[in-house]
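batch job 7 of whatever, protein = EngC GTPase domain-containing protein
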Amino acid sequence: MPQIGTVIRRTKNFYYVDIGESEPRLCHIRANLFHGNPKTNLVAVGDQVEIDTADAGKAGWILKMLPRRTMLSRRQSTDSPEQVLASNADKVLVVASLHSPPFRNGLVDRFFVAGSCGGLENVLILSKADLSTEEEIASIKNL
């Protein structure tokens, strides 16, 4: 009987799906589920999926993916397919150092743009403030 679960881990050949049992269920993905789009990672951590768990001793099968609320994704280049890193999250937490290594505004911007495009709330967490000067801290606050 099909059950709904959340993908909590992905390896090369398997997905681990939480269906409320003591251990996550190991699952395969049906080859025909995403026919015609083999180059992208179509199921990501956080996705809600319908799985077939008929045989308790064996791996289950992902039958269907439910619609995503949000997602964090990236592209390697303009002509490459989108790679979904995570889905159905509420926030993107970006942790950045103020001092060593130095703060990289461009990197934080890229994460924030990706989060905003995917419908996520962005949160910046700054570390090593005790090692930074007042000027360094003020420059970050003005961004």
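notes: The first strand starts at residue 2 and ends at 10.
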